[in-house]
Amino acid sequence: MSDYLVRMAQQPALRSVIKTIGLPTPQTLARAGGPYVDTPLAGKTVLFGAGDGATASKKVQTTLKAMGAEAQSAADVTGDSRFNAVVFDATGMTDPAQLRALYDFFHPIMRNFTGNARVVLLADVPETADSVPAAVAARAVEGFVRSLAKEIGRKGATANLVYVEKGAEDRVAGVLRFFLSDHSTYVDGQPVRVTRGGKMPRSVPVTRPLDGKVALVTGGARGIGAATAERLSQEGAHVVVLDIPADAETLETTAKAVGGTALAQDITDADAPRAIADFLKDNFGGVDIVVHNAGVTRDKMLANMAEHLWDMVLAINLRSILAIDEVLLGDKIVNDHGRILCLSSIGGIAGNAGQTNYGATKAGLIGYVQSQGQKFGDRGITVNAVAPGFIETRMTAEMPFMIREGGRRMNSMSQGGQPQDVAELLTFLATPGAGGVSGNVVRVCGQSLIGA
Ligand code: NAD
Fold first, then answer.
1. DSSP state for residue 389 in the 8-state scheme
2. CA dihedral in degrees (338, 344, 345, 348; nearest 10)?
3. Could you give the CA distance from residue 162 to residue 184 in angstroms, rounded to a whole number?
4. Ligand 1, residues 230, 244, 318: which to mutate, most atoms within 8 A of Cβ?
């Protein structure tokens, strides 16, 4: 579904009318629209800075260079400078007094961002900081990033944070690549934790990173699942697209379009976990990426909710996922360096009237990835969730107009996301370069105000 305000705001005459009547004028968001490239920052203006004692700067600068950027420093900035990307390394802070470096660096450049600029900060993981003042300083950076993101979001610009565990500096390159590119368009104001625990793959290609990998996408016939199947296949994966038998025709079309394999299967069937495992084992020898995308809403206020609506949503959105993973992980159908990805929702973070069933399932998945996140590190398997906000799909098209408008506008970008925005985040988390990210729940919501 497309957004009428985004379309109208593209035309200068209508844009001023929209402004005059006090409606938001959403920026057209830059989207990559294709596979990863080697040097996405080539020809772009990038500014880099760091606080005293920062520990990740060397790796950051190597990554920027590899991405094609000749990074400038604060000394090069003039009033006319315009930055497509800005990176600040705030790791190594031992006292909140050092937060002044954020003001000193960002205050003079706040009017110098281009539309769709990308800002990334790095900080230490607060929970494992060496001292209380260090923990306070590290956590303060998150508040700074979230606020900064809200100040620049109407330009389509984003600000995100990478928490880097000590010793995990070598693992930040993949996250930086994602956040600094137009693949991360609708991920805004988010912290991602990079840890040193799990095994990293030996080879971490930046283009076609999924060559030779096999992916399973449940509920992949349409919407977010179909967009994800497309992105995964663009990066080289062979995608097994699964959906219910009643949707076999759409499923076949989607699977064919991505050069993948269709699997008509209801994930709530008692024998589904075994059937899926056998299919993957027999046809491909295993699976590398599992995207648990199938999900439904059956909204009713709890007082009016029939028990079958409760049971159905719990079965599809939560219980089937646990049952499938039990077999796929238990029988080692998931290969080493595998990726398990769950679709949570901001409904699972904030809750929603009329969604006690849905909210419970999507929050349950957060508990699931947090409890599983570090369990398979010895095999390099990561388990993460993404939490979409308002995404333009069949699910949101069915909402009443006023609720749909509220959901669409209540974020830093004043617009909904597209299925491809969720697909981009899932695809990044599926790459070898995301090996340091596990047990994370990353929102893709344009920094929605809901549950923030
Ligand atoms: P969608 O309705 O467009 O697609 C969901 C797919 O899942 C459908 O093709 C459906 O046939 C399939 N499915 C349903 N039950 C199944 C079953 N028992 N077995 C196999 N497949 C089944 O939905 P979408 O908007 O693309 O959402 C995809 C996921 O993203 C869901 O988990 C949803 O909860 C989550 N999500 C969506 C949004 C949004 O704004 N659209 C926001 C937050 C989270």
1. -
2. -150
3. 14
4. 244
Other CB atoms within 10 A of residue 129 CB = 19
Tell how far the Cα of 223 is from the centroid of ligand 1, in angstroms.
7
How confident is residue 94, by pLDDT bands cut at 50, 70 and 90? very high
Residue bearing the CA closest to ligand 1, atom 44: 345
> Which atom of ligand 1 is found nearest the CA of 346?
43
- In this structure, what are the phi and psi dihedrals at residue 244, rounded to the nearest 5 degrees? -65, 150
Q: What is the pLDDT of residue 18?
A: 67
| Global pTM exceeds 0.90 | yes
pLDDT tens-digit series, residues 320-334: 999 999 999 999 999
The pick from 393, 403, 404, 421 for probing ligand 1's pocket by mutation, whose C-beta has the most ligand atoms within 8 angstroms, reads 393
358 is catalytic: yes
User: What are the two backbone dihedrals, phi and then psi, of residue 266, each rounded to the nearest 5 degrees?
Assistant: -85, 120
Return the ligand 1 atom nearest residue 294 CA: 7
Q: What is the pLDDT of residue 296?
A: 96
Quickly count helices (H) and strands (E) in the chain. Answer: 16, 12
Contacts of 63 (CB under 8 A, 6+ apart): 172, 173, 176, 177
Binding-site residues, ligand 1, Cβ < 6 A? 218-219, 221-225, 243-244, 247, 266-268, 293-296, 316, 343, 345, 388, 390-391, 393-396
Interval 169-193 mean pLDDT: 98
Using one digit for the tens of pLDDT, what is the confidence trace for 45-79? 999 999 999 999 999 999 999 999 989 999 988 88
DSSP label at residue 433: G
Structural domains for the chain: 43-194 (3.40.50.720), 214-444 (3.40.50.720)
- Of 186, 217, 222, 224, the residue with max ligand 1 atoms within 8 A of its CB, to mutate for a pocket test, comes to 224
Q: Which helix (H) or strand (E) holds 261?
A: strand 261-264
At 287, give phi and psi (nearest 5°).
-145, 145
For residue 432, CA distances in Å to 44, 227, 233 come to: 26, 20, 15
Question: Pairing state of beta strands 382-388 and 238-243?
Answer: unpaired
For the CA atoms of 50, 54, 55, 58, what is the dihedral angle to 10 degrees? 30
Comparing C-alpha atoms, which of 283, 375, 264 is closest to residue 326?
A: 375
| Integer Cα distance of 334 and 323 in angstroms | 14
Q: How far is CA 430 from the centre of its chain?
A: 11
Residue position matching structure tokens 């029988």: 331
